[in-house]
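User: Some background: our group keeps a shared notebook of sequences we're curious about, and every so often someone picks one and asks for a predicted structure to add to the entry. Today it's my turn. The entry only has the sequence so far, pasted here. Could you supply the structure so I can complete it?
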Amino acid sequence: MKKILLLIIAAIILLFVAWYTTVYFSTYSEGVRSGELIKFSNKGILFKTWEGEISQGISGAQIFSFSVEDKNEDVIKKLEEYQGRYVKLKYKERFATVSWLGDSKYFVIGVEEEESPHFRNK
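Assistant: Of course. Here's the predicted structure to add to the notebook entry:
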């Protein structure tokens, strides 16, 4: 009976490790999005995560929500500096969300300030 219980527990742990490895290391898509950085904060009670939003439309109807991993300190510093400005974000999309990494499936891996298309020819 103990042997069966240990096998079941080992199988559950193995399945969790396989799922987590797939979600963390496999990338569903990669891309670039631009918009005005309207929110960037470190939030959470048990797991503190960096979360942000960019507005991709004039009226703010198109909001792109993203997360940033703690290990990307240079990206975090740039996003804090670029608050309220127009930015271009390079991101990777994961298959699922993991609560201790972030609220979103989209993880920013690079950021640069960009000229706003609304004020280019003025």
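Suggested note for the entry: The mean pLDDT is 88. The first strand starts at residue 29 and ends at 43.
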